[in-house]
Protein backbone atom coordinates (compact mmCIF):
# COMPACT_ATOMS: atom_id res chain seq x y z
CA UNK A 1 0.00 0.00 0.00
CA UNK A 2 1.26 3.47 -0.92
CA UNK A 3 1.14 5.21 2.45
CA UNK A 4 2.20 8.57 0.99
CA UNK A 5 -0.93 8.68 -1.18
CA UNK A 6 -3.04 7.60 1.80
CA UNK A 7 -1.45 10.28 3.95
CA UNK A 8 -2.21 12.88 1.29
CA UNK A 9 -5.86 11.85 1.20
CA UNK A 10 -6.12 12.03 4.98
CA UNK A 11 -4.54 15.48 5.09
CA UNK A 12 -6.95 16.67 2.40
CA UNK A 13 -9.99 15.35 4.28
CA UNK A 14 -8.70 16.89 7.51
CA UNK A 15 -8.04 20.25 5.82
CA UNK A 16 -11.57 20.75 4.52
CA UNK A 17 -13.42 19.33 7.55
CA UNK A 18 -14.85 21.08 10.57
CA UNK A 19 -13.72 20.26 14.12
CA UNK A 20 -16.40 17.57 14.34
CA UNK A 21 -15.23 16.14 11.04
CA UNK A 22 -11.65 15.91 12.29
CA UNK A 23 -12.81 14.03 15.38
CA UNK A 24 -14.85 11.70 13.15
CA UNK A 25 -11.82 11.09 10.94
CA UNK A 26 -9.65 10.28 13.97
CA UNK A 27 -12.22 7.79 15.26
CA UNK A 28 -12.53 6.08 11.88
CA UNK A 29 -8.78 5.87 11.34
CA UNK A 30 -7.66 4.87 14.85
CA UNK A 31 -10.58 2.97 16.35
CA UNK A 32 -12.05 1.39 13.23
CA UNK A 33 -9.51 1.10 10.44
CA UNK A 34 -6.43 0.29 12.55
CA UNK A 35 -8.38 -2.06 14.84
CA UNK A 36 -9.70 -3.81 11.75
CA UNK A 37 -6.27 -4.17 10.12
CA UNK A 38 -4.23 -4.98 13.23
CA UNK A 39 -6.53 -7.14 15.34
CA UNK A 40 -10.04 -7.89 14.08
CA UNK A 41 -8.97 -9.41 10.77
CA UNK A 42 -6.82 -11.98 12.58
CA UNK A 43 -9.60 -12.88 15.02
CA UNK A 44 -11.90 -13.92 12.16
CA UNK A 45 -9.20 -15.57 10.03
CA UNK A 46 -9.98 -19.04 11.44
CA UNK A 47 -13.76 -18.78 11.74
CA UNK A 48 -14.52 -21.48 9.14
CA UNK A 49 -11.55 -23.71 9.88
CA UNK A 50 -12.34 -23.96 13.60
CA UNK A 51 -16.12 -24.22 13.26
CA UNK A 52 -16.61 -27.75 14.60
CA UNK A 53 -19.77 -29.84 14.59
CA UNK A 54 -20.14 -33.16 16.44
CA UNK A 55 -20.78 -35.14 13.27
CA UNK A 56 -18.72 -36.61 10.44
CA UNK A 57 -21.51 -36.30 7.87
CA UNK A 58 -19.95 -34.78 4.71
CA UNK A 59 -21.25 -31.29 3.99
CA UNK A 60 -23.02 -30.82 7.34
CA UNK A 61 -20.39 -28.47 8.78
CA UNK A 62 -20.30 -26.32 5.64
CA UNK A 63 -24.09 -26.02 5.48
CA UNK A 64 -24.37 -25.09 9.16
CA UNK A 65 -21.57 -22.55 8.90
CA UNK A 66 -23.22 -20.91 5.90
CA UNK A 67 -26.52 -20.77 7.78
CA UNK A 68 -25.16 -19.13 10.94
CA UNK A 69 -22.55 -16.96 9.15
CA UNK A 70 -24.23 -15.88 5.88
CA UNK A 71 -21.74 -13.00 5.57
CA UNK A 72 -18.50 -12.75 7.49
CA UNK A 73 -18.20 -9.95 10.04
CA UNK A 74 -14.83 -8.97 8.65
CA UNK A 75 -16.06 -8.62 5.06
CA UNK A 76 -19.06 -6.58 6.15
CA UNK A 77 -16.76 -4.27 8.12
CA UNK A 78 -14.46 -3.88 5.11
CA UNK A 79 -17.40 -2.93 2.88
CA UNK A 80 -18.70 -0.56 5.55
CA UNK A 81 -15.35 1.21 5.90
CA UNK A 82 -15.07 1.62 2.13
CA UNK A 83 -18.55 3.09 1.76
CA UNK A 84 -18.28 5.35 4.80
CA UNK A 85 -15.01 6.94 3.66
CA UNK A 86 -15.92 7.49 -0.01
CA UNK A 87 -18.05 10.65 0.61
CA UNK A 88 -15.05 12.40 2.16
CA UNK A 89 -13.11 11.76 -1.03
CA UNK A 90 -15.97 13.29 -3.04
CA UNK A 91 -15.53 16.51 -1.05
CA UNK A 92 -11.82 16.55 -1.94
CA UNK A 93 -12.67 15.96 -5.61
CA UNK A 94 -15.16 18.83 -5.54
CA UNK A 95 -12.53 21.17 -4.09
CA UNK A 96 -10.01 19.99 -6.72
CA UNK A 97 -12.58 20.70 -9.44
CA UNK A 98 -13.03 24.24 -8.09
CA UNK A 99 -9.28 24.82 -7.96
CA UNK A 100 -8.82 23.53 -11.52
CA UNK A 101 -11.64 25.76 -12.79
CA UNK A 102 -10.16 28.78 -11.04
CA UNK A 103 -6.73 28.00 -12.48
CA UNK A 104 -8.09 27.74 -16.04
CA UNK A 105 -9.84 31.09 -15.60
CA UNK A 106 -6.61 32.76 -14.45
CA UNK A 107 -4.67 31.33 -17.37
CA UNK A 108 -7.30 32.60 -19.81
CA UNK A 109 -7.87 36.09 -18.38
CA UNK A 110 -4.73 36.83 -16.40
CA UNK A 111 -4.39 37.78 -12.75
CA UNK A 112 -6.76 40.74 -13.08
CA UNK A 113 -9.80 38.64 -14.00
CA UNK A 114 -12.72 38.07 -11.65
CA UNK A 115 -12.31 35.09 -9.32
CA UNK A 116 -15.12 32.56 -9.34
CA UNK A 117 -13.81 30.83 -6.21
CA UNK A 118 -11.56 33.16 -4.14
CA UNK A 119 -11.30 30.35 -1.59
CA UNK A 120 -12.08 27.00 -3.31
CA UNK A 121 -12.15 25.14 0.02
CA UNK A 122 -14.75 27.43 1.59
CA UNK A 123 -18.02 25.54 2.07
CA UNK A 124 -20.36 27.69 0.00
CA UNK A 125 -22.76 26.90 -2.82
CA UNK A 126 -22.39 23.44 -4.30
CA UNK A 127 -19.54 22.48 -1.99
CA UNK A 128 -21.74 23.15 1.05
CA UNK A 129 -24.36 20.78 -0.30
CA UNK A 130 -21.74 18.20 -1.22
CA UNK A 131 -20.35 18.30 2.30
CA UNK A 132 -23.78 18.14 3.94
CA UNK A 133 -24.92 15.24 1.75
CA UNK A 134 -21.66 13.42 2.47
CA UNK A 135 -22.39 13.65 6.19
CA UNK A 136 -25.91 12.30 5.76
CA UNK A 137 -24.63 9.51 3.51
CA UNK A 138 -21.98 8.47 6.04
CA UNK A 139 -24.50 8.39 8.87
CA UNK A 140 -26.96 6.48 6.68
CA UNK A 141 -24.37 3.87 5.71
CA UNK A 142 -23.47 3.25 9.35
CA UNK A 143 -27.14 2.93 10.33
CA UNK A 144 -27.81 0.46 7.51
CA UNK A 145 -24.85 -1.70 8.47
CA UNK A 146 -25.86 -1.66 12.12
CA UNK A 147 -29.23 -3.01 11.03
CA UNK A 148 -27.58 -5.65 8.81
CA UNK A 149 -25.39 -6.83 11.67
CA UNK A 150 -28.38 -6.95 14.02
CA UNK A 151 -30.43 -8.86 11.43
CA UNK A 152 -27.74 -11.49 10.92
CA UNK A 153 -26.48 -11.68 14.52
CA UNK A 154 -29.09 -10.89 17.15
CA UNK A 155 -27.91 -8.47 19.84
CA UNK A 156 -24.58 -8.34 17.98
CA UNK A 157 -23.36 -11.40 19.90
CA UNK A 158 -22.37 -14.94 19.01
CA UNK A 159 -23.36 -17.98 21.11
CA UNK A 160 -20.76 -20.51 22.14
CA UNK A 161 -22.84 -23.43 20.83
CA UNK A 162 -25.38 -23.45 18.00
CA UNK A 163 -27.74 -26.28 17.12
CA UNK A 164 -28.15 -27.18 13.48
CA UNK A 165 -30.57 -29.61 11.84
CA UNK A 166 -30.25 -28.66 8.20
CA UNK A 167 -29.79 -31.37 5.58
CA UNK A 168 -27.49 -33.23 5.01
CA UNK A 169 -27.03 -33.34 8.82
CA UNK A 170 -28.43 -36.68 10.07
CA UNK A 171 -30.07 -35.11 13.15
CA UNK A 172 -29.73 -32.09 15.44
CA UNK A 173 -26.00 -31.51 15.83
CA UNK A 174 -24.08 -29.14 18.10
CA UNK A 175 -21.65 -26.78 16.42
CA UNK A 176 -18.99 -24.80 18.26
CA UNK A 177 -17.79 -21.35 17.22
CA UNK A 178 -14.13 -20.45 17.46
CA UNK A 179 -13.28 -17.83 20.15
CA UNK A 180 -16.84 -16.47 20.60
CA UNK A 181 -15.98 -14.26 23.60
CA UNK A 182 -13.16 -12.48 21.79
CA UNK A 183 -15.32 -12.01 18.70
CA UNK A 184 -18.17 -10.61 20.80
CA UNK A 185 -15.83 -8.06 22.39
CA UNK A 186 -14.59 -6.84 19.01
CA UNK A 187 -18.13 -6.77 17.61
CA UNK A 188 -19.46 -4.66 20.48
CA UNK A 189 -16.42 -2.36 20.20
CA UNK A 190 -17.03 -1.78 16.50
CA UNK A 191 -20.74 -1.23 17.10
CA UNK A 192 -20.00 1.33 19.83
CA UNK A 193 -17.53 3.26 17.64
CA UNK A 194 -20.03 3.19 14.76
CA UNK A 195 -22.70 4.71 17.00
CA UNK A 196 -20.29 7.47 18.08
CA UNK A 197 -19.47 8.21 14.42
CA UNK A 198 -23.19 8.44 13.58
CA UNK A 199 -23.73 10.94 16.40
CA UNK A 200 -20.72 13.01 15.27
CA UNK A 201 -21.96 13.11 11.67
CA UNK A 202 -25.42 14.26 12.76
CA UNK A 203 -23.95 16.89 15.10
CA UNK A 204 -21.72 18.19 12.31
CA UNK A 205 -24.68 18.35 9.90
CA UNK A 206 -26.71 20.29 12.49
CA UNK A 207 -23.74 22.60 13.06
CA UNK A 208 -23.44 23.36 9.33
CA UNK A 209 -27.16 24.03 8.95
CA UNK A 210 -27.29 26.18 12.09
CA UNK A 211 -24.25 28.20 11.01
CA UNK A 212 -25.75 28.78 7.57
CA UNK A 213 -29.06 29.90 9.08
CA UNK A 214 -27.28 32.38 11.35
CA UNK A 215 -25.38 33.81 8.39
CA UNK A 216 -28.57 34.20 6.38
UniProtKB/TrEMBL annotation:
A connexon is composed of a hexamer of connexins. It is a multi-pass membrane protein. Pfam families: Connexin (PF00029). Keywords: Cell junction, Cell membrane, Gap junction, Membrane, Transmembrane, Transmembrane helix. It comes from Furnarius figulus. One of its GO terms (molecular function) is gap junction channel activity. Residues 141-208 form the Connexin cysteine-rich domain. InterPro entries: Connexin, Connexin_CCC, Connexin_CS, Connexin_N, Connexin_N_sf. PROSITE patterns: CONNEXINS_1, CONNEXINS_2. It comes from the Eukaryota. The keyword Cell membrane applies. Gene3D superfamilies: Gap junction channel protein cysteine-rich domain. This is Gap junction protein. Residues 42-75 form the Connexin N-terminal domain. Belongs to the connexin family. One of its GO terms (cellular component) is connexin complex. One of its GO terms (biological process) is cell-cell signaling. One gap junction consists of a cluster of closely packed pairs of transmembrane channels, the connexons, through which materials of low MW diffuse from one cell to a neighboring cell. It is found in: Cell junction, Gap junction; Cell membrane. The chain crosses the membrane at residues 20-39, 77-97, 128-150, 185-209. The lineage of its organism: Eukaryota, Metazoa, Chordata, Craniata, Vertebrata.
Amino acid sequence: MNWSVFEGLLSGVNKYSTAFGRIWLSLVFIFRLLVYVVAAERVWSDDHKDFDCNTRQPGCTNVCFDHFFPVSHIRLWALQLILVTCPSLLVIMHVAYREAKEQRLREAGGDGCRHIYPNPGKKRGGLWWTYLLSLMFKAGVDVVFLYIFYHFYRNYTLPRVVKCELPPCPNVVDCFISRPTEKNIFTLFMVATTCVCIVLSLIEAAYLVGKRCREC
